[in-house]
């Protein structure tokens, strides 16, 4: 029977938890191993009590003289947990999200950055808890971990009221300053009020048209009736060209040009910058001055991109004055829309530096994530021919001829979109999303018991997207590829992979329109088959592919997986 009550627990007090845990472990070891550890423990105890450093007899003392200290600590520990409250969780040595925690791969003693993915099927005590804690014993931040759709919704849904803050140690502020993805409070609202309406229907129609054009160019690099081994790279190029065209309004071509005009220089610099954000975030400034060719190249690319965006913004401002005479509907790229908000007469104004920050955020939030989801979708459809056939038939039904692919009939491709959501659920593009709590909030857990937990001001909460997306209470049979679950009339959950609430993905419609249009063209032309190794079944091939899933730049995904494509009649 579910029990409901109020629990108070504050991770600021976690030091107490850690110290007690260490003492209890030590005391337990001493009691178990009297001959070897008792003298060591006695010496440890004496050093801490005999401040004058008097010589200490290291003969093992009788056991009964040693028990009081561990017993006292143990009693204190359990009394603390009983009266103060306690949220079950993990006690790793290092914070898996810290720099050393990231660098050490996940193993039996270390959770590691990839822990949420590796443990996705059994995390949070076999999904029996929807809120747990991570309290590192040696170093790092303690945090609450939300592991169910309901818990994630409570955190995201109330962000407007609870004023949760995106932690600065997880953001790119040092690289390109303030932007929609990093700002908090009133500043964030101002950014959002400019960026959200910029992704208008006019803009999405442009996304549909440009997708068709870029896809046609990409086809020239595909080997008909052969195995494509670089599909992920091609998809990355596709999404980058799309952001350049629809985001920046620059007619970047499919093949990177060697010319010296502004567009080609921007394209080349952006291609390097778009894959090196992690380097830019991790390395200190002096690293970029080292005489290493590749480091210089990365540094120059970043400088070029940031200066070019600033100078392009000035040019667009002039262009905008002309466009205004023609009407707002003439502006179909994000950049010009954002530049127009630097006008003093605009309702919500951005500074030119903020426009640069927002454009960089849109680029990084939307490029690798979308290509990663496209790749997973094609791999899953390549392993599930029946679902691929259903999607193909829907494409033929909704879009009888290629020329008729418009924003309106792309939104009719419901099953295709469901396939994308399902592949995205199984391999989410983001691993976890953190927030800091500036004032006390209450979260209601449902598992293992219904309970209100007060999260104290100063705590950190992290949404474990991998656990949420693989939670069997939210997604029955979570490991199976079942696109139909997204079409069920009983479906209560919206697509959680794009976040939820006021800070959910502002580019979701952009990403969905771009990806579904691409898939409609691709699946219309090609039958996709994920290549199996000799002797593999679909399930073993899938296990192999998923075990190779990792971070590729800023997005999580399956990476390069060979697929066979056969031209349809
Ligand atoms: C499949 C592709 C995408 C995925 C999986 C994705 C996922 C997400 C998620 C989970 C968030 C919420 C982050 C948080 O709560 O901390 C987010 C926010 C955001 N996304 Fe996306 N995104 C995608 C595509 C895009 C695209 C194409 C754009 C731009 C055109 C974009 C721009 C943004 C921005 C600017 C934010 C920050 C919004 C805010 O803080 O108000 N995303 N995205």
UniProtKB/TrEMBL annotation:
This protein's pathway: Secondary metabolite biosynthesis; terpenoid biosynthesis
Protein's UniProt keywords contain rRNA processing: no
Pfam assignment, any one: p450
InterPro entries associated with the record: Cyt_P450, Cyt_P450_CS, Cyt_P450_E_grp-I, Cyt_P450_sf, Cytochrome_P450_monoxygenase
Domain of life according to the entry: Eukaryota
Cellular localization per UniProt: Membrane
Transmembrane segments: none
Binding, heme: 505
Alphabetized GO MF terms: heme binding; iron ion binding; monooxygenase activity; oxidoreductase activity, acting on paired donors, with incorporation or reduction of molecular oxygen
GO cellular component: a single term: membrane
Family membership: Belongs to the cytochrome P450 family.
The protein's name in its UniProt record: Cytochrome P450
Species annotation: Mycena indigotica
């Amino acid at each position: 029977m579910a029990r409901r009550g109020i629990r108070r627990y504050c991770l600021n007090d976690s030091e107490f938890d850690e110290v007690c845990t260490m003492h209890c472990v030590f005391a337990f070891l001493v009691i178990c191993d009297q001959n070897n550890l008792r003298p060591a423990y006695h010496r440890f105890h004496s050093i801490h009590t005999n401040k004058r450093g008097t010589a200490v007899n290291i003969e093992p003392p009788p056991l009964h003289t040693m028990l009081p200290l561990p017993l006292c600590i143990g009693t204190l520990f359990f009394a603390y947990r009983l009266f103060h409250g306690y949220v079950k969780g993990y006690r790793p040595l290092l914070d898996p999200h810290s720099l050393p925690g990231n660098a050490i791969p996940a193993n039996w003693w270390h959770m590691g950055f990839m822990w949420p993915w590796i443990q996705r099927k059994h995390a949070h005590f076999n999904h029996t808890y929807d809120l747990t804690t991570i309290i590192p014993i040696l170093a790092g931040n303690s945090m609450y971990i939300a592991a169910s759709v309901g818990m994630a919704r409570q955190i995201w849904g109330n962000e407007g009221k609870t004023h949760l803050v995106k932690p600065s140690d997880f953001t790119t502020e040092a690289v390109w300053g303030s932007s929609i993805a990093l700002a908090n409070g009133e500043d964030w609202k101002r950014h959002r009020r400019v960026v959200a309406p910029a992704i208008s229907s006019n803009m999405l129609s442009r996304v549909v048209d440009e997708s068709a054009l870029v896809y046609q160019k990409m086809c020239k690099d595909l080997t008909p009736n052969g195995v494509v081994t670089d599909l992920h790279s091609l998809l990355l190029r596709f999404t980058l060209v799309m952001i350049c065209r629809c985001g920046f309004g620059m007619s970047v071509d499919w093949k990177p040009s060697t010319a010296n005009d502004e567009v080609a220089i921007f394209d080349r610099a952006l291609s390097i910058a778009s894959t090196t954000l992690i380097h830019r975030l991790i390395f200190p400034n002096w690293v970029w001055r080292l005489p290493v060719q590749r480091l210089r190249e990365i540094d120059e690319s970043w400088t070029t991109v940031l200066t070019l965006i600033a100078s392009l913004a000035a040019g667009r401002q002039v262009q905008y004055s002309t466009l205004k005479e023609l009407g707002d509907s003439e502006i179909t790229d994000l950049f010009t829309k954002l530049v127009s908000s630097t006008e003093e007469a605009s309702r919500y104004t951005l500074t030119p530096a903020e426009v640069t920050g927002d454009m960089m955020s849109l680029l990084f939030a939307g490029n690798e994530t979308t290509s990663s989801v496209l790749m997973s979708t094609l791999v899953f459809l390549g392993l599930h021919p029946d679902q691929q056939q259903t999607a193909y038939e829907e494409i033929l039904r909704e879009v009888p001829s290629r020329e008729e692919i418009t924003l309106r009939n792309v939104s009719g491709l419901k099953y295709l979109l469901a396939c994308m959501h399902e592949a995205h659920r199984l391999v989410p593009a983001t691993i976890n999303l953190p927030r800091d709590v500036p004032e006390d909030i209450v979260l209601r857990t449902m598992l293992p018991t219904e309970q209100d937990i007060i999260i104290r001001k100063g705590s950190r909460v992290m949404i474990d997207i991998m656990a949420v997306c693989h939670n069997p209470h939210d997604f029955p049979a979570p490991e199976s590829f079942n696109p139909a679950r997204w079409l069920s009339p009983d479906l209560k959950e919206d697509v959680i992979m794009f976040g939820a609430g006021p800070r959910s993905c502002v580019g979701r419609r952009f990403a969905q329109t771009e990806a579904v249009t691409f898939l409609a063209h691709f699946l219309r032309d090609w039958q996709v088959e994920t290549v199996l190794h000799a002797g593999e079944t679909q399930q073993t091939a899938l296990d192999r592919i998923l075990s190779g899933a990792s971070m590729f730049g800023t997005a999580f995904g399956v990476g390069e997986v060979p697929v066979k494509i056969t031209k349809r009649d």
